[in-house]
Design goal:
Rossmann fold; D-amino Acid Aminotransferase, Chain A, domain 1; five-stranded parallel sheet; globular; 12 helices; alpha+beta
Length: about 425
């Protein structure tokens, strides 16, 4: 079987690594792909947002399965366009992708289908939103409605911080159309965790859990980022909690999608807060998380190609899904200035010395030399029999890599109860 990955980041590199292990795979392509992925997936020069161009690649290269990585193609309906042209696609259609592309729509979906989540309200006018702040208590979360590359959420400890966020989104338009509408949400207290599930429109299979670390600095300080690292499984998620999350969130979501007439074939990502009252849903994403995927896939004891192909064709029950014992840790190496103004073009040294999985997120190659080409540059991942050993391996490998201004958190997975 030939397969095509749509995307070019660290998540797509990890997907290519996992798909490559399938005995059913003949050739793997990536559109547009990256230099870091090229040893695993042949690059296809193609706009990942253009369904017709992608269909041309699929026809020319006899592709049997398309796996869409990023959210932007899904939000634009690329999966719909490919399915209409007769291709098997792992990734939801545009209407289902609104669970991520519109936070206001997602909150409405959660309310209509009884999913546990934080109290919230939607606004388009600055003054109305500011007047509503006292009703949310001292702390409030301000979310841009649309896609903002993981940077459209501000957790505010005071009304003045929240007002500044509202001004940035609604008046200064720092996120453009994505911030034209905002969601004000009560701040939940507890431990964050992530759970992703494979859906085929009728049923779902849970992947190993994970815990992302979104803040830039140690101790969960600094601005939100796309993610500075992840561990799998999430230390705080017991079997009892997993069963509860499956029933109260994933089963209800799947039933809600069916009631709304949506045939969801892809990954559904649940960002969770484990509160005193129980698990509550912070957000949905409609694709594999980044960097959670880099931590989760090394623990997957299954043929990923068969799993995703089965989901795309609506026969998920045919594909086994198991996980290895142990833990996995992914540490993100970021550029100086990330997340606001990352400095790029800096030589990377030590990649050959890193005794770990290294997934390329933002790199460029010239001959045998590598340089930085993005904010999140590399994801250094290691597996061990327990969290402590996996952390040691990941950090030892990260310590062998260097580029000017390199930054990474030193506390990824450092405690089981941190609210990262």
């Amino acid at each position: 079987m030939n397969a095509l990955i749509v995307g070019s980041g660290g998540r797509e590199h990890a997907l290519a690594w996992a798909l490559r292990k399938s005995p059913r795979l003949e050739r793997l392509y990536a559109a547009p792909g990256s230099a870091g992925m090229s040893a695993l997936a042949e690059p296809a020069a193609c706009d990942p947002l253009d369904a017709e161009a992608l269909a041309g690649v699929c026809r020319e290269r006899k592709v049997s399965l398309v796996v869409i990585g990023p959210e932007a193609p899904l939000a634009l309906g690329v999966a719909d366009g490919l399915r209409e042209r007769g291709f098997s696609v792992f990734g939801p259609g545009r209407d289902a992708a609104r669970l991520e592309s519109s936070k206001a729509h997602a909150k409405d979906f959660m309310a209509r289908h009884g999913l546990p989540t934080a109290r919230s309200k939607v606004f388009t006018a600055f003054e109305e939103a500011r007047a509503a702040l006292p009703s949310f208590g001292d702390s409030v979360v301000v979310k841009a409605d649309g896609l903002a590359a993981g940077k459209g959420v501000r957790v505010c400890a005071s009304h003045s911080e929240a007002e500044a966020a509202l001004s940035d989104f609604l008046l200064e338009k720092v996120h453009g159309e994505a911030g034209r509408k905002v969601v004000l949400e009560e701040k939940l207290e507890g431990t964050e965790a992530t759970l992703m599930a494979i859906l085929d429109g009728k049923s779902c299979r849970l992947l190993p859990s994970s815990q992302d670390h979104k803040r830039l600095l140690e101790g969960d300080q600094g601005p939100n980022t796309g993610g500075m690292g992840a561990v799998s499984p999430a230390p705080a998620l017991t079997q009892a909690l997993l069963s509860r999350i499956r029933g109260e969130i994933f089963d209800r979501a799947l039933e809600g999608l069916r009631k709304d007439g949506l045939d969801y074939r892809g990954v559904l990502y649940a960002g969770l807060m484990l509160t005193r009252e129980g698990p509550k849903l912070l957000e949905f994403n409609v694709r594999f998380g980044d960097p959670e995927t880099q931590a989760v896939l090394p623990l997957l004891d299954a043929d990923l190609l068969e799993l995703l192909h089965s989901a795309a064709e609506g026969r998920l029950e045919d594909a086994p899904l198991r996980a290895y014992e142990g833990s996995s840790v992914c540490v993100v190496l970021a550029s100086e200035g990330y997340p606001d103004q990352p400095k790029t073009g800096r030589p990377i040294e030590g990649l050959d010395a890193a005794d770990a999985l290294v997934f390329h997120a933002g790199t460029k190659r010239a001959g045998k030399s590598w340089s930085t080409a993005g904010g999140r540059v590399l994801g250094v991942c290691a597996v061990g029999p327990d969290l402590g050993s996996a952390r040691r391996k990941a950090y030892e490998a990260a310590g062998r890599i260097h580029f000017e201004g390199m930054h990474f958190r030193k506390d990824i997975g450092a405690c089981a109860s941190c609210a990262c």
